């Protein structure tokens, strides 16, 4: 470690005093965690109550995206009497979680804040704002882009002898799974923002590991996608790659900059856009392949 880097990493006296005065024992951490969890659950419960009041509008918002992609004559069904209640309850829970996202993220920050220095605690507003926006953006992307694309692929298998009659329980499980994945992935820029702000990662580091990140992203997309179709896998991977490139820009903006970093950012942006365009063209070509024709008697 160089003397300059050591000096940068050495905390100020005020910060050391703040960290020492805020030291907590193991039981204190458990008590703090319990308090934050209770507050988060109360916020989610209030959000569920509000969501249940508008449950018909929320259901129409979700079901419209599902029914729109079904083949003509198909409709959602359920064979287990409890599936209907499970759908409404899960829908209210998702609505409550989205409405309570700012409160929940504030409780997360409140739990980790005692371990931060005084100059780091001032980022509470950016943390709550960015994580909330990431949650909403991930849910909207899954609802309008990712999930309809998956359903259209499954619906293309329907024909005169093979009719698609999807169950609401299994279909909604796919919907919830994709939404959770996208909400988690849309937190990547926020994570990189704080890591770069605390000088734990740099744009140069993210750029040098871009090829490994793309490989990992496609492996994760292959594991998470519900079909072997390359179109759906690419639909999973493209937003992740785009978020990674955005994270590189964010790391460059909030981290230390020099001329080499500027050139690095420009090259990474061009290469990332080229890779994304190539994969999108490849996926679109795979989606336009001819459909299976059934012989007529």
Textual characterization of the structure:
- By secondary structure, the protein is an all-alpha fold.
- Helix content is 75%, strand content 0%.
- The protein contains 13 helices and no strands.
- It has helices at residues 3-9, 13-21, 26-53, 55-67, 81-99, 101-112, 124-155, 168-185, 188-197, 203-208, 210-224, 230-254, 259-287.
- Helix 6 crosses helix 7 and helix 11 (210-224) packs antiparallel against helix 12 (230-254).
- The radius of gyration is 23 Å and the shape is flat.
- Residues 1-21 and 292-297 have low confidence and may be disordered.
Unreliable segments (pLDDT under 50, ≥5 consecutive)? 1-21, 292-297
Could you tell me how far the N terminus lies from the C terminus, measured between alpha carbons in angstroms? Answer: 78 Å
Counting H and I runs of at least 4 residues, what is the number of helices? 13
Output the helix-strand order. Answer: HHHHHHHHHHHHH
Helix-residue proportion: over 70%
The Rg value, from CA coordinates, equals 23 Å
- Decide which structural class fits the backbone: mainly alpha
What would the average pLDDT be, to the nearest integer? Answer: 77
Shape assignment:
flat
The number of E-state strands comes to: 0
Query: Biggest sheet: strands, sense, closure?
Result: none
From the structure above, extract its key features.
disordered C terminus; mainly alpha; single chain; 297 residues; flat
């Amino acid at each position: 470690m160089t003397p300059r880097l050591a000096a940068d990493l050495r905390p100020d006296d005020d910060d050391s005093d703040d960290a020492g005065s805020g030291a907590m024992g193991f039981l204190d951490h458990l008590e703090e965690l319990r308090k934050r969890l209770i507050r988060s659950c109360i916020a989610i419960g209030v959000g569920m109550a509000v969501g249940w009041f508008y449950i018909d509008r929320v259901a129409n918002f979700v079901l419209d995206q599902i029914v729109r992609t079904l083949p003509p004559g198909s409709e959602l069904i359920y064979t287990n009497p409890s599936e209907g209640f499970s759908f409404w309850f899960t829908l209210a829970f998702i609505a409550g979680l989205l409405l309570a996202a700012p409160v929940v993220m504030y409780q997360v920050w409140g739990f980790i804040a005692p371990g931060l220095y005084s100059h780091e605690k001032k980022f509470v507003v950016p943390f709550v704002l960015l994580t909330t926006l990431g949650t909403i953006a991930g849910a909207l992307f899954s609802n309008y882009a990712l999930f309809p694309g998956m359903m259209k692929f499954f619906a293309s298998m329907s024909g005169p002898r093979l009719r698609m009659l999807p169950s609401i329980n299994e279909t909604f499980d796919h919907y919830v799974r994709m939404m959770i994945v996208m909400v988690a992935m849309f937190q990547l820029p926020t994570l990189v923002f704080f890591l770069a702000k605390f000088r734990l990662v740099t744009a140069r580091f993210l750029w040098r590991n871009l090829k490994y990140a793309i490989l990992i992203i496609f492996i994760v997309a292959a594991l998470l996608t519900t079909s072997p179709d390359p179109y759906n896998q690419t639909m999973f991977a493209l937003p992740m790659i785009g978020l990674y490139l955005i994270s590189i820009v964010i790391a460059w903006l909030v981290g230390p900059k020099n001329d080499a970093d500027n050139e690095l950012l420009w090259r990474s942006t061009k290469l990332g856009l080229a890779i994304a365009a190539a994969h999108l063209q490849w996926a679109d070509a795979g989606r336009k392949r001819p459909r299976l024709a059934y012989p007529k008697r």
